[in-house]
Design goal:
- The structure is a single chain.
- It contains four helices and 15 strands.
- By secondary structure, it is of the alpha+beta class.
Length: about 260
């Protein structure tokens, strides 16, 4: 029988605090984006703002240059699931757009995505945003010492599907630290009680991508942007989470959480 060994990079309290500093800056950036993103604004303008904001605060966008990716943000509109390129097309009322970024502050990373409603959106789109954010929070609640990765995925999947939306399978959360993608992979679907057991010091992203239609995706010709195979809407919410003895600690928030 073949045994798979996953090498986990457990973080110290000091390292988690450094990641929390990056996470607070990232959350601050998202709060500023929320004020700016509206009909008529382009995702290229949001991209420019993010680069300037991070530079002013002594940070950089980690995904820029990662495996050849050219941008500081991923900006995914409507049926785009993830890795959408910032562009000069003005956003219009009724759109939904996910802005995803990884901040590097003093060598430590934080990763967070948020989906934004542009102007007046449909009831279907609003429902998708609300369910996706709630699914994230339900997944976070399961990120506790002794639980398993399957508990996170199960909580997200069962809630999402009970609300009539689907869970993307092709993209998952991941470990993070001084490098952008570390073990373990964190699926947003799965079976309760299955998968890797969570340990103190693990830092992971939980980032459910939910669709109003089928969960399947297709890749654009640019080799990066994934969109729903059936043209349905997609949304994503993501936090970086530390597994601590006191429960899950959200690092990408402005709340004054202490380790």
């Amino acid at each position: 029988m073949l045994r798979v060994i996953i090498l986990l990079q457990l973080k110290s309290k000091n390292e988690i605090k450094k990641m929390q500093e990056a996470g607070r800056l990232l959350a601050q950036c998202h709060s500023e984006i929320k004020k700016r993103i509206k009909p008529g604004v382009t995702t290229a303008e949001i991209e420019s703002f993010v680069e300037s904001f991070l530079a002013e605060h002594g940070a950089t966008a980690e995904q820029k240059g990662y495996q050849g990716y050219k941008y500081a943000t991923c900006a995914s509109v409507n049926d785009e699931i993830c890795h959408g390129f910032p562009r000069n097309t003005p956003l219009k009322s009724g759109d939904i757009v996910t802005i995803d970024m990884v901040v590097n502050l003093n060598g430590w990373l934080a990763d967070s995505a948020w989906s934004y409603a542009i102007g007046e959106i449909s009831e279907q789109a609003q429902h998708l945003l609300e369910v996706t954010e709630e699914a994230l929070m339900r997944g976070i609640k399961e990120a506790r010492i002794g639980n398993r990765l399957g508990d996170i995925g199960y909580a997200i999947q069962t809630y999402a599907e009970s609300e009539g939306v689907s869970v993307v399978r092709d993209f998952v959360g991941h470990g993070i630290g001084p490098t952008i993608h570390e073990e373990p992979q964190v699926p947003h679907y799965g079976l309760k009680g299955k998968g890797l057991r969570l340990k103190e010091g693990m830092v992971i992203t939980i980032e459910p991508m939910l669709n109003t239609g089928d969960w399947r995706s297709k890749l654009d010709d640019n080799g990066w942007t994934a969109r729903t195979a059936d043209g349905s809407l997609s949304a994503q919410y993501e936090h970086t989470i530390a597994i601590t003895k006191d429960g899950p600690l959200i690092l990408t928030t402005l709340e004054n959480n202490e380790l």
